[in-house]
Specification:
The chain contains 1 helix and 5 strands; from the N terminus they run ββββαβ. With about 90 residues, the protein is mainly β.
């Protein structure tokens, strides 16, 4: 029993330490800053991402453009654009 409430145990009292296992942080799924689309049409194309409103310009056949991941679903529906895995 302590005499003045100082937060210390009284003389002779034992201190119990809690030993909880420390777990490693959980791995988060990889989040990409951009996805890439390639234009396979005959001329040029400007596509607008539905989520961000950004304009993505594909200036020639074979052009690859970095796209915000949130715009990926809307650009997947655009004819002559295909999702690619590298710039």
């Amino acid at each position: 029993m302590g005499c003045c409430g100082s937060g210390r145990p009284a003389h002779g009292a034992s201190i119990q330490a809690s030993h909880r296992p420390v777990s490693a942080p959980r791995a988060q799924p990889a989040r990409y800053s951009h996805v890439f689309f390639e234009y396979i049409g005959p001329t040029a194309l400007t596509a607008i991402g539905r989520a961000t409103g950004k304009h993505y310009r594909f200036d020639r056949p074979g052009a690859r453009v970095a796209v915000e991941p949130v715009d990926q679903p809307s650009l997947k529906g655009v004819p002559n654009l295909r999702l690619v895995y590298s710039p």
